[in-house]
Amino acid sequence: MKLSTRLATAAAMLAAGALAFTGCSGPSGADGAGSIDTSGELSGTIKFQSWSLKNEKFTPYFEDLIAAFEKEHPKVTVDWLDQPGDGYQDKVLSQANSNSLPDVVNLPPDIAYPLVAAGKLVDLAAADDSLEKVYVPGAWASYSYPGIEGVYGLPWYLGTDLNWWNGAALTQYGVDTAALPTTNEKLIALAEQVGEASGGQMPLLSSMPTIDLFASSDVEIIDNDGRFVFNTDRAAAIVGDFAAAYQAGAIPAEALTGDYGGNADMFKQGKVAYTTAGSGFAGDLQRDAPTIRESVIASPRIGAAPLFVQGVSVSNDSKNKPAALAFATYLTNTENQVAFAQLALGFMPGTVDGSADAASLSESVTDPLQKEAMEIVSESMKTARILTPFQWTGAMKTYMDQQLALALKGELDPKEALDKIVGYANDNLVEY
């Protein structure tokens, strides 16, 4: 599975039914949580599991990293396992159910949650209270869960989005590209302006409102009791603005249907003048749309920047927690994270020092647009946060898209659409 695909989907791949653990009675956190001393001599064998990273590009990196760790701790052996991209969550849950979860395992926050609820992961905040200050705050916080004390993952590599604008298309329709929108309200107003000026031939937007958009606009998505509450007047106004933009030709009709292929693809095809994507999009444009790329402008994401997180957790069933925690912290230290991010361009280290050092991350990059994008992402990491709660499922998104499509076409009142969406979501919450 490509890294970009994984980070984009990890925030919303919670599924129902098969994910429940046998004997799980609800959120409890790790049993026996407490300090883990890694300062003494370490020994024994531990298993480390990554997610679709054993390949020509990354295998040498992991082999060297493991060899260096074993040299530092000569009585420790690290067995590296790698699972395919497809079916990873089911595999992890099967391992946990059979008490065979590897000592150190690659988990995004949403896949980690059912394991945390079943007491299968170590509380890393309790294991070592010095760790919190090492990692990007929003990423560290993403491994804490409502009603459960503790933090259950070390942020490893991170992603976020930024804005990409088709400068030539915008200039053609009278837009001052030196004064691009910095709020969602101004973005929608510009979308209507360009839609009208182009006669609907150059839409600016290519998607309906999303949970991320509501959250980045300071709409409360879910309350402390775990209930969805985003059916507010503020969210209804956003939907109403999108409906007006759609009527003005600012959103293509295919964005409202199942045939929608994605705003980034439409941008590369020259069908829309704006999209959001990670910093690696600069390379995608060079490969797929070099003519459009010539005038492309990158800028920080409007509102709160979304945070996509991959991390590593320590199994609470591990028989060798000191060695496991030592390896997890070694894998995710700044030096090793920066080296990883230099291979995986477009992603940022999960440590504060690593994500702030855009120069080190891009030292081998010669493309000015790629460098600029990486600098924007580095700055965004200071405040980026998870916008889509782990309780939000694919089925909920599908239902939301159906209702919002009706609202944008004027067939359903925006507030009524949101009431239906929130009702459906709360009726279909996944519990463990």
TrEMBL record:
The keyword Transferase does not apply. The keyword Hydrolase does not apply. Residues 1-20 form the signal peptide. Keywords: Signal. InterPro entries: Bact_solute-bd_prot1, SBP. This is ABC transporter substrate-binding protein. It comes from Luethyella okanaganae.
